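FORM 7B: Structural annotation worksheet

SECTION A. Query
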Amino acid sequence: MHLFSFTMAVLALIGITGIYLRQIRQFGLLGLIASAMLALFFVLQAAYTFTEALVAPLIAVDAPQLATGVAGLFGREPAMSELGILGGLPLIGLVLYVGGGLLFGVSIIRARVLSRGAGVLLVAAAAVTPVAGALLPHTLERLAALPMGAALIWLGWSLWSHRTPTARPVYEIRLQGQLGQRFSDWFEGFTLTNESDGTTTLAGPVTDQAALHGLLRRVGDLGVTLISVNDLETEKS
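SECTION B. Predicted structure
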């Protein structure tokens, strides 16, 4: 259970960061605050889970009441010893979870980039989860977090499905002389055009510089004179 909670917190942090960066311009200041609050909650969750699983058992022998208090910090039983500032963590976590979830959901809806339905679900989850957690038995209260998890998964899917493919640069290569259309197979993916001034133009997308050099080697193998190589996307800008 500890491993599951820790993994969920780490994945949520990664997801929130990706969601924010995907719509950083549309999110504005409200989205930044919401992202920071929700991210801080999951940092708190990951840190607490780590402490509960690995640190509390180490101090259990010398300070059993402190270890029990730390382990049950977010439970419903009162602490058996004074925890100091740690005693305020549940309230801080609640504010970050509810406030961050509400603001993050509203920011999603306002941005109109990712699924607005997921934003609505996130708002509902942030509002209902504390109430559901209080009403459910202690053994089942973790189930109250399922709507929040479902909203984040939905947003993750929306982020993945709305990803923008990387545009490949389009090059125009001008050659001396005119090549017949039979050479089209040599330059698959390129449009071969015989110009009226006696030159030949090859135009098409190039994946990277290695592919461009390979293309130019094929031109050299033909024994034709290379006049120019132009990046059409750069010229347009």
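SECTION C. Observations
The chain has two domains: 2-161, 170-236. Helices lie at 2-22, 24-59, 64-71, 89-111, 116-135, 146-161, 209-222, 232-236.

SECTION D. Sign-off
Analyst initials: ____
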